[in-house]
Amino acid sequence: MLLEFGGNNHDYRSPERLVSLVEFKQHLERFRRELPAATRVAVITFPPILDELHCYTPLHMIELEVQGGLDRAMESHREMTRWFARTNGFPLIDLDRMIRERWETEGRLHYTLPDGVHLSPAGNQLLAGAVLDALLSHGLRP
To answer: How far apart are CA 63 and CA 54, in angstroms?
Structure first.
């Protein structure tokens, strides 16, 4: 099973969809408690957001400015995702760091679509390769 926190849980257009860090941790802990014993899990961090391209930036400038932008607002959830994987011994696919490490050589839009958030075909290939590597390195067969 692949587990990735969704960026739509930071939807400022629908405040009822916002998921606090406390609530996020509760969801992760419940997920772990209710997971069938034989289930194998790999955890994926949410990818970088290019604030200057994302449609929320101009619409929610005040909320986002306080947090340093949507990308920075997501960082606490990325860190919680990393903690959850480490604590539970789950393979971590740190898509966020993988993409950021490639920006200098590949460019910021190589792995991200011009909307600033969704993966490009190259981003999807990077993720698919990382998932396969994580599965194989942990003795799992796809």
So the answer is: 14
